[in-house]
């Protein structure tokens, strides 16, 4: 765990995932009476069955009986296995523990992969270790999205502007949070890690937000893969942020903290005043909105749906894949295509709404020239 935190600078979520995986592995070792450094491939394989069924070690379920309620999803099985294999690779490299040699096999990279790099012909003799145990991942289904009507219902459920009185009602902070997720496609952790100095607005040029890698958020949220990027935003989002800042100043927040270098999304009513929001607080807010809005929004929606909706809307509005890739912060365009390549072929999505109108105010053209 310390190597992940310090040596690999892994995110808190990654560390927690590895910890859960190794905990499950140690429970299996104890139940099976195995020493951790004496594992063989035959003694490793029942671990997959335990994960899939949730049954105790040694219980053999008939195929017709199906998996028990204690089993985990196949994607989780893959994560658990990958973490355990990485654990043994580490101990093989650092301490010479031989278990990894029993759980990996050597072979040519190209023989096992359908993906061929552009310079693969220069790598003819390269062999590398690959896991002897592979968990087949199921085909990824279409990413869930919010329709424009559902998105608007959520935003209005947070706060509304009364043109007659010129006043906002509700929580401008909550509306700004979801409007930022919607218009920028940020991950929740990236959004919560924003500081006011990351918002470059009110200077006469095109407003934009900088996604800055940092590790000082009390909840441990961070920018994935530490990738800096700039995202241009609409005048509407700029005005919403300005309104929020004015409301903070009305409560003397600028006297309590250095507001320019403070977190954008902070506690205002519950908890420590002006303390940075935690992801759990946002999920509590999502739950409250679901109860309040009822059937107007999907029962399963989460903050990450805004990211899927952002990418989907841009592609259906005609944005190029590389522009979407840069806004989302993907490492390469292939990741974007793997996740959203189906979007432009989905006839139902195409007719669902006027996506060009939905994205009309977003500053996407600047992405192509930045």
Key phrases:
370 residues; mainly alpha; 7 strands; three-stranded antiparallel sheet; hpI Integrase, Chain A; two-stranded antiparallel ribbon
Strand proportion: 5-15%
How far is the first residue's CA from the last residue's CA? 39 Å
- Taking all residues together, what is the mean pLDDT? 86
**CATH topology label of the largest domain:** hpI Integrase, Chain A
SS class: mainly alpha
Please count the helical segments. Answer: 18
Radius of gyration: 24 Å
What is the number of beta strands? 7
Largest sheet: 3 strands, antiparallel
Low-pLDDT runs: 63-68, 109-122
Helix content: 40-55%
Which CATH class of the largest domain is shown?
Mainly Alpha
Order of helices and strands: HHHHHHEEHEEHHEEEHHHHHHHHH
CATH superfamily of the largest domain: Intergrase catalytic core
User: What spatial order of strands do you see in the largest sheet?
Assistant: 5-6-7
> Based on the structure given, which CATH architecture of the largest domain is correct?
Orthogonal Bundle
Pfam family, one: Phage_integrase
Domain Core-binding (CB): 1-92
Family: Belongs to the 'phage' integrase family.
GO molecular function: DNA binding
Gist?
Belongs to the 'phage' integrase family. The protein has 370 residues and is mainly α. It has helices at 2-7, 12-32, 41-44, 46-53, 74-95, 99-103, 148-158, 172-184, 188-192, 235-250, 253-256, 279-293, 304-316, 321-328, 333-340, 347-352, 355-358, 365-369; strands spanning 104-108, 127-131, 159-162, 167-170, 199-200, 208-211, 229-232.
């Amino acid at each position: 765990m310390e190597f992940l935190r310090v040596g690999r600078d892994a995110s808190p979520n990654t560390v927690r995932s590895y910890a859960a995986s190794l905990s499950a592995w140690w429970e299996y070792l104890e139940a099976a009476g195995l020493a951790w450094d004496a594992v063989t491939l035959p003694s490793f394989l029942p671990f997959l069955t335990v994960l899939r069924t949730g049954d105790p070690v040694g219980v053999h379920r008939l195929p017709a009986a199906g998996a028990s309620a204690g089993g985990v999803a196949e994607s989780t099985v893959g994560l658990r296995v990958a973490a355990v294999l990485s654990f043994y690779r580490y101990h093989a490299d650092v301490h010479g523990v031989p278990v990894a040699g029993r759980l990996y096999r050597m072979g040519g990279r190209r023989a096992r992969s359908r993906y061929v790099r552009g310079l693969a012909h220069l790598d003819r003799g390269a062999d590398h270790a690959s896991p002897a145990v592979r968990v087949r991942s199921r085909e990824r289904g279409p990413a869930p999205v919010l329709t424009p009507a559902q998105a608007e219902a959520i935003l209005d459920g947070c706060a509304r502007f009364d043109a007659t009185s010129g006043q906002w009602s509700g929580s401008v902070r909550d509306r700004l949070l979801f409007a930022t997720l919607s218009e920028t496609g940020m991950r929740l952790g990236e959004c919560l890690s924003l500081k006011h100095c990351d918002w470059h607005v009110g200077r006469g040029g095109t407003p934009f937000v900088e996604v800055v890698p940092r590790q000082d958020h009390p909840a441990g949220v961070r920018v994935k893969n530490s990738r800096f990027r700039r995202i241009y935003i609409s005048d509407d989002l700029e005005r919403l942020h300005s309104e929020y800042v004015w409301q903070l100043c009305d409560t003397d927040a600028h006297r309590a903290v250095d507001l320019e270098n403070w977190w954008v999304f902070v506690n205002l009513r519950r908890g420590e005043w002006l303390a940075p929001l935690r992801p759990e607080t946002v999920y509590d807010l999502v739950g409250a909105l679901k109860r309040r809005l009822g059937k107007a929004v999907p029962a399963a929606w989460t903050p990450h749906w805004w990211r899927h909706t952002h990418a989907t809307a841009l592609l259906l509005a005609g944005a190029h894949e590389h522009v979407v890739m840069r806004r989302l912060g993907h490492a390469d365009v292939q990741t974007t295509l793997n996740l959203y390549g189906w979007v432009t072929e989905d006839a139902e999505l195409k007719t669902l709404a006027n996506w060009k109108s939905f994205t009309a105010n977003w500053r996407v053209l600047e992405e192509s020239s930045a």
